[in-house]
Prior knowledge:
- By secondary structure, the protein is an alpha/beta fold.
- It has helices spanning 6-22, 28-42, 49-67, 73-86, 106-109, 129-137, 150-159, 190-200, 244-252, and strands at 119-123, 142-147, 164-167, 180-183, 206-210, 222-225, 231-236, 264-266, 269-272, 281-283.
- A seven-stranded mixed beta sheet has the order 3-2-1-4-5-7-6. Strands 8-9-10 form a three-stranded antiparallel beta sheet, covered by helices on one side.
- The longest helix is centred in the N-terminal third of the chain and has 19 residues, at 49-67.
- The relative contact order is 0.09.
Amino acid sequence: MPPWPLPALCVWALAWLLFLGGRSFLPVFAAVLLATGGSLLASLWGPTWWRRGMIAAGFPLSYAVLAAGSLPGWGWLLLLGALLLVYPLNAWRDAPIFPTPAGALQGLADRIDLPPGAPVLDAGCGLGAGLRALRQAWPQARVQGVERSWVLRWACALRCPWARVRQGNMWVTDWGRYHLVYLFQRPESMSRAAVKSLAEMPDGAWLVSLNFPLPDEIAATHTAQLADGRSVYAYRCPIAAVDHDGVQADEAAGHAAAVTPEGVIVRGERLYAPRRRPGGRRRST
Length: 285
């Protein structure tokens, strides 16, 4: 890896070359999208998240400063529309496009024995880095992914032709059919993952999360350390016993659950997680 900030300077220069070259045969907004997309892909070169952010943001910010006085209003709307295609508004509560490092799941491969043909799911697969890590760790499994963005779904399918990738909401997808579900989301998403795991995943299945453990002091069955200091957490289902009596007691005492607008769809019902409990209560849709 060249010394910092040389990687950022190289990517910014290449992005401007892409933009200037694209201007010869593309409209301005398309050339901007081309250069921005190239910056996003090249940002994977960065060793840390903040450096990847600087690499990715260099061209868009520099172009915005130069073009702020000349780009018409509809041009900004087109750029916003392109962003929403890649990252839909209703997905903003989940993780943005953060790729899984290569070989991140290798530390669990000898601890989690999956039978040949076992279906595994990357929930929120993005551009397919997690799918590749799953295939590397468990080559005998049937790797599948679900991604909310249509653009990322098609890009991921092209990048990972051996995987079954579909467009959809990972919180609506039934996790009960999979032997292992992999997540690389946000800390705020892990409570929903715990609720959905308890409600849908069969005994003996695995819930695996990169970097973020489940809440409520749920102990991981296995933990693997990555070279960059992050950890992978593996939970054998059921992750915990649901204290149904305690949930009913809370409701009788008038303790309201922390209800989100969307909740989690479980077998046609909307499920909300009470605070400090991995279980949940159901409300009919």
